[in-house]
Specification:
It is a single chain. This protein has 11 helices and 8 strands. By secondary structure, the chain is an alpha+beta fold. It has a domain of 152 residues: Up-down Bundle (Butyryl-CoA Dehydrogenase, subunit A, domain 3). The protein has a 4-stranded mixed beta sheet. Strands 2-5 form a two-stranded antiparallel ribbon. A two-stranded antiparallel ribbon has the order 7-8. A hairpin with a 2-residue loop joins strand 7 and strand 8. Helix 1 packs parallel to helix 4, helix 4 runs antiparallel to helix 8 and helix 7 runs antiparallel to helix 8. The longest helix has 39 residues.
């Protein structure tokens, strides 16, 4: 038996990970109410929440100790991402940590980049699967101090003296059109196959953490719908007792557990055996991209007229469930990538 044989089938959390999850549950519950989420919708960013989040070490934890980080595992990061999704936190944490990890991987995060490690400066990336050249929509483009993009065979860091203007979007993200040709400074960080492989790994991490966030989002959506169903009566009984309500709620619970398990499994493999199951992270993303929208839509339906009102929390979760996965382009492109990975392994 090798040292990983049992762990490959056991994705239970360690005591430290359980404490980490509990700490961030309490943090977002105390600092990110649905009212504050609504207040930040115009820009997609809550600067005060971001500063408080960074003060907890949420940005430095994601980086290796060699660059001033804390060396957290991908499983640890997935736990934080889950709580970000649960609270709809308007902060660019997933984009920032994936881009910062990419900079560290390329040796482009030096002693002078402590502001990136601490989160004082925000760094983002273009999470699309392919490089189409020219302008591209970047999820945190309107607030990032640095943006890492793929330009042909090069990985380039862009800096703008004036940030690109915010573009309204259904995910309520601080999204902007970014044109590498218009950047005030463009630094080629690395070139060639190894550089592109490092960038692809950052994209896989982005999708994995987004999948974890969507699992948290669906669980909170389910909670909102379930609480309503337990207190709303028809014909003298709670509507939660009706099959047309109870069965969809059970399906939502299955989505939460399935998506969470898949994301944590993918995170464990990415930490320990990255070449063994590279399709797991993209698979978690494709699964949650489809199922989160269905689950959030059902939550709105369960609440009826209240659910479709603009001020309802369920509506806020629905638009995020539909918008967040699209920040990385068409999820179908990720499904194609999964097919290529599996086909190449089977043919080999």
């Amino acid at each position: 038996m090798d040292r990983y044989e049992l762990r490959r089938e056991d994705y239970s959390l360690s005591e430290d990970q359980t404490d980490l999850l509990s700490a961030y549950q309490k943090f977002f519950k105390a600092n990110c109410s649905i009212e504050s989420v609504r207040a930040a919708e115009a820009t997609g960013f809550d600067k005060g929440l971001w500063e408080r989040l960074c003060a907890t070490g949420a940005t430095s934890m994601a980086l290796p100790e060699s660059v001033g980080g804390d060396g957290a595992t991908m499983v640890d990061l997935a736990l934080v991402a889950e709580e970000i999704g649960r609270s709809l936190a308007p902060v660019p944490w997933i984009d920032h940590v994936c881009a910062a990890r990419l900079l560290a991987r390329l040796g482009a995060l030096g002693p002078d980049d402590g502001a990136i490690v601490s989160g004082e400066q925000i760094v983002g990336l273009d999470p699309r699967q392919v490089d189409a050249g020219g302008r591209r929509l970047v999820p945190c483009g309107s607030i990032a101090d640095h943006i890492v993009v793929r330009d042909g065979d090069d990985v380039v860091r862009l800096t703008f003296d004036t940030r690109p203007p915010h573009v309204d979007n259904i995910g309520r993200l601080p999204m902007a059109w970014v044109d590498p040709a218009a950047a005030d400074a463009a630094t080629v960080l690395a070139s060639g196959p190894q550089a592109l492989a490092a960038y692809q790994l950052a994209l896989d991490e982005w999708r994995l953490l987004t999948a974890a966030a969507l699992a948290g989002l669906v669980e909170e959506t389910m909670t909102i719908a379930a609480e309503f169903a337990k207190t709303r009566y028809t014909l003298g009984v709670p509507i939660a007792t009706l099959q047309g309500i109870s069965h969809p709620l059970a399906n939502m619970a299955i989505v939460v557990q399935g998506g969470r398990a898949l994301a944590r499994r993918a995170a464990w493999y990415l930490d320990n055996e990255p070449d063994a199951r590279p399709e797991l992270g993209p698979s978690a993303f494709v699964f949650m991209a489809e199922e989160s929208s269905k689950a959030a839509t059902m939550a709105v339906h369960i609440q009826g007229g209240l659910g479709v009102s603009a001020e309802a929390a369920a509506t806020a979760y629905l638009v995020r469930a539909r918008g967040w996965p699209l920040a990385g382009g068409d999820p179908g492109a990720t499904a194609v990538r999964i097919a290529h990975i599996v086909a190449a392994r089977e043919s080999a």
